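Lab notebook page, bench 4
Experiment: in silico fold of construct C2
Operator: M.H.
Input chain length: 226 residues
Purpose: comparison with the prior construct
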Amino acid sequence: MNRLSLLARPALLSPRAWALTAASALLISVCHEAAAATATPAKAATPAPAVAASVATPAVAPITLVAAQSTVGFTAKQLGVPLQGQFKRFAVQTNFNPKSPQTSQVSLRFELASASVSAEADPELGKPDWFATAKFPQATFVSTAIKATAPGRFEVAGKLSIKGVARDVVVPVQLTQAGGLSTITGTLGLKRLDFKVGDGDWTDTSIVANEVQVNVKLVLQGMQPM
């Protein structure tokens, strides 16, 4: 054997050296396993909070007046003879819900200049002693409370204002529904002199009676069913 082959051959280890080498390898392996066990685990990604889907509330159609089928009339007496009259122009605003009358409201506005009794009497109605339409063009009723008294029947409390005078009144009304339309009918008795209607010589109730009956028929579209 030549010198070169002796230099290339790896050296043989003694039994003691082999034991030390094996122990070192075992120690390194144990250290690696301990480090892996104590390593901080990766933090799981926090899921994004769920976003609730928004649900659009369906729009409630407004309640509208069918003017051609509605009337606001009144009955007075002159020398004991009944006189029938009406207001030809009026408007209604309401959110009336028959199932929740306590949360409902109604307002009625009528043009005093549209009052009509007869061709002879109409020119007098707009004068200061009567409706004084130049100063008070409108009369109004605004509800303050509505309550059910029986199926399809209600009491509407509110303020009636005529010629600058406001009075608390209660109007009993009936509601019927058919063919997609709701009809409210009601009658209110009042005294004209409480509202200064018929001043001057017309305060004599032997000529024109103090009692006046107001009859309302409102045909509405878009109301909730009973």
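Observations: The first helix runs from residue 3 to 8. The domain at 64-221 is CATH 2.40.128.110 (Lipocalin).
Next step: discuss at group meeting.
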